[in-house]
Design brief:
Elements: H1 4-16, H2 20-25, E1 27-35, E2 39-43, H3 47-57, E3 62-71, E4 74-84, E5 100-112, E6 115-123, H4 125-132, H5 141-164
Parallel strand pairs: 1-6
Antiparallel strand pairs: 1-2, 3-4, 4-5, 5-6
Length: 165
């Protein structure tokens, strides 16, 4: 049987090649993936639609497994993904606008009998939203104005709570 590291590498190679059938084959049916802050998928049922949509929205999507550390039936994979948001469909509520992404994250994998049973995928969603143009660039006038409005609201809320006490 292949090692956990080899199984993780093969799975991420399937993601990199947009090979949804290969991705699904790596899963034990009835398992789950948690994309922290984004979505939770049942494998294999949700994989075809979620990743099909991702690859449709980012037709040039590329993923590189930069580092894999494995022990027993657990692995962590540090990855980097790039792509252009210029395809078809809607991703996380947004229509493609031609923006490019260059993000990295870490997936924590758990296997049983050589098949995936759980993935927790962690990435900086705020950075991705900034790159997509859904949130203003860090440090921009609009970013500072939003932070100022948030802080003003927090101050007013604090004052109202103190008056009520």
């Amino acid at each position: 049987m292949p090692s956990t590291s080899e199984i993780a590498a093969r799975y991420f190679e399937c993601v990199a090649n947009q090979d949804i059938d290969g991705m699904i084959a790596a899963w034990k049916p009835g398992s789950r993936a948690n994309f922290v802050g984004m979505d939770e998928l049942r494998a294999p049922e949700d994989y075809r639609s979620w990743f099909g949509n991702l690859f449709s929205c980012f037709p040039d999507f590329r993923l590189e497994a930069k580092d894999i550390v494995a022990e027993g039936e657990k692995a962590s994979v540090h990855w980097q993904a790039t792509g252009t948001f210029d395809g078809e469909g809607i991703f996380e509520g947004f229509r493609p606008n031609g923006a490019t992404i260059d993000i990295e994250g870490v997936d924590l994998l758990t296997l049983e009998d050589g098949r995936l049973v759980h993935i927790t995928a962690i990435l900086n969603g705020l950075d991705m939203a900034r790159q997509l143009g859904a949130v203003p660039p860090k440090g921009s006038f609009t970013d500072r104005a939003m932070a100022g409005a948030f802080n003003a609201k927090t101050a007013v809320t604090g004052k109202l709570k103190s008056f009520r006490s």
